[in-house]
Amino acid sequence: DISSLGIVNDKGEIASEQFVRKFCDDYCLMRYARARSWIVEKASAMLLETLKWRWQIRPDLITAQQVKVQASAGSNYHNGFDKYGHPVFYMRASRDPPGSTQEKLDLLFYNMEEGVRRMNSETGVEKFVYIIDLKGFSITQSGADAKLSQSWLNALQNHYPERLSKVFVIDSGMMFTGFWNVISYFIDPESRRKMTFLTLDQFKKSIPTSDYFTVDTLEEYYGGTLPVKVTDAQHAKALAAMKNVPTTEVDEKKVAPKKSFFSLKK
Question: What is the reported pTM?
Answer without folding.
Answer: 0.84
